[in-house]
Design brief:
326 residues, alpha/beta, Rossmann fold, 8-stranded mixed β-sheet, 4-stranded antiparallel β-sheet
Length: 326
């Protein structure tokens, strides 16, 4: 498969009164055309900042300080604001976590959807309206013409999320970034939204970058998984390997803390401690204060992300003897 997006050594820092905060610190991965990848980890691991960096939406005081983001060979970090605006929506689209804060409460759904279509596809007002209603119907919204004239606050959470998906897919983007698209929805609506995303992207051969902490969604949706911790990639492999042969202690902790339908437990296992603040990172391996297997080397030296098996990368000193040439 052709490579659509390639992120190399991405570093995004925030410059505050209290100093420089390294939110994303040396992240590298690629997305193939038609592939669905998931970026997983606890809140504060740098998942959303990674996606905002790709979209060129890291606002002040944040800044990409190093690395490159190649989209079809073009480095996004070197594009002008005008070129970025042309790229966003047309080539790369994003679904944000909470649609109510992403939709303008002062304008109707149709106004916002049509505006996007007119801007990126150059359609007339009437043609944009027809395309908008078609997209609303395509994402499973009943009475699409009525919803077109409605304001965001009058819709349910699931309906608003469908509107956001319709808006994101209206220009047939090559890459869809979905930041926790089902977090605020109940389980039944979650399943419908995920099925909707899967079907629509399958029809258009769109690649998906799914940001989530829900491993159930990961098992259902994706081809490849990137596990992030403290602004770094700590494990990168295919979804089957991640669930059947996880390597990093953090990944194992995430999987152990997920309820399983065939097991009965009085309480779920949890990972001790919390994600460190980017302003106060531990020396050595960033996970060492929470890791049950930490050694003296883990406390003093930071491991690199290395291949331990074919197409399986891990950032952990436990596997330094398993490194293979791939």
């Amino acid at each position: 498969m052709l490579t659509l997006l390639e992120v190399n050594n991405l570093k995004t820092h925030f410059f505050t009164e209290n100093g420089v905060i390294p939110s994303v610190n040396g992240v590298s991965f690629e997305i193939k055309k038609g592939e669905t990848i998931a970026v997983v980890g606890e809140s504060g691991c740098g998942k959303s900042v990674t996606s905002l960096s790709i979209m060129g939406l890291v606002g002040s005081p944040g800044k990409i300080v190093d690395g490159e983001i190649l989209f079809e060979g073009r480095d996004i970090t070197k594009l002008s604001k005008r070129e970025l605006r042309k790229l966003r929506g047309n080539e790369i689209a994003m679904i944000f976590q909470e649609p109510l804060t992403s939709l303008n409460p002062l304008f109707t759904v149709g106004n916002q959807l049509s505006e996007s279509i007119k801007l990126h596809q150059g359609l007339s007002k009437q043609d944009a309206k027809v395309k908008s209603i078609e997209m609303l119907q395509k994402v499973g919204i009943p009475r699409a013409d009525k919803v077109y004239s409605s304001y965001p606050h009058s819709l349910s959470g699931g309906m608003r999320q469908r509107v956001m998906i319709a808006m994101a897919l209206s220009c047939n983007p090559k890459l869809l970034i979905a930041d926790e698209p089902t977090t605020a929805l109940d389980v039944t609506i979650q399943a419908q939204i995920l099925e909707l995303m899967r079907n629509l992207t399958r029809e258009n051969d769109t690649s998906i970058m799914l940001i989530t902490h829900d491993l159930g969604v990961v098992a259902e949706m994706v081809d490849t998984v990137i596990v992030m911790y403290a602004g770094q990639v700590v494990e990168h492999t295919d979804v089957y390997t991640l669930f059947h042969n996880p390597k990093h202690p953090y990944t194992k902790g995430l999987l152990d803390s997920t309820p399983k339908i065939h097991e009965r437990k009085d309480e779920l296992q949890s990972i001790e401690g919390t994600v460190p603040s980017p302003a106060n990172m531990p020396v050595g391996c960033k996970f060492n204060p929470r890791c049950p297997f930490a050694t003296e080397k883990c406390v003093t030296q930071e491991p690199e992300l290395t291949d331990v098996e074919k197409n399986h990368k891990v950032r952990c000193w436990l596997y330094e003897e398993e490194e293979v040439a791939v």
